[in-house]
Amino acid sequence: MSKSVGKIFGTGSTDAYGYEKNYVNYLKNYDTSVYDNTLNNLTSRAYAMSTNLDALPDFRLTVDGSDEARQRAENATYQSYMDKLQPEFQRQRTDMETALINKGLSVGSEAYQRAMSDLVDEQNQALNQAAYQSVLNGQNAYSNSLTDDIHAAQFSNAAQRYYIDLLHSLLNGSVSGYDNQSNLYAAQGGVQNRINQARQGAFNNLINVASGAAGVVAPQTRIASTLTNNRR
């Protein structure tokens, strides 16, 4: 006869309900080898991957823009302006001198000096605009490098989180030593509770039998007498 679930868990009962026997037989014949082998492969893979954790880069907690990129952008922009402005400035100066002489203004005269001063002011404004645009482009380059660094940090951190999450997913379904001890403790507690319930039930039955016995002996005496007889 198959042991009942109750017998398996220590109640002392030798009788099994039909559904208990069917369930026990089902569990005994259920093939878990495919799942167990697959889980073993996954946990082995997780262990092998976990040995690579030290090779992963550290989590990025800070980001920074590139000051070198800013400086390069400023220099490149300013040089581009100067390559165009310097020949233009020289042409403007030559044209202005020729025009003033053709008007009969001598070099060094007040009108001549005023006209040349106005030209220099215009050219300085162009230089200031070149400098402003250079700084602006440098700031944009710094901001772009900062954005790129943020994206790189986010990608690196996300890749590490994915790697760690993958390890956890590979371990899904497996039991750790702590989990196993916790399960054993719960199972043993359940078994002990059923044993205690069975013993209490048996004791209550003895009390009921003793209480219903004939005679005028005190209840405590009848219980003690019944227990003594049962031991015999």
Task: List the keywords.
mainly alpha
Descriptive notes:
The chain has 232 residues and is an all-alpha fold. Among the domains are: 67-164; 177-232. The protein is 78% helix and 0% strand. The longest helix has 61 residues, at 110-170. It is rod-shaped, with a radius of gyration of 47 Å.
Quick structural overview:
The protein has seven helices and no strands.
Set down the secondary structure blueprint.
Blueprint: H1 5-8, H2 18-29, H3 33-50, H4 67-102, H5 110-170, H6 177-212, H7 219-231
Give the integer mean of the pLDDT values. Answer: 80
How many whole angstroms does the radius of gyration measure?
Answer: 47 Å
The major pleated sheet works out as: none
Number of strands: 0
Question: Uncertain segments of ≥5 residues (pLDDT<50)?
Answer: 1-16, 214-218
Global structural class: mainly alpha
**Order of helical and strand elements:** HHHHHHH
Summarize the amount of helix as a percent range. over 70%
Number of H/I helices: 7
Distance between the termini: 30 Å
Instruction: Name the overall outline.
Output: rod-shaped
Beta-strand percentage range: under 5%
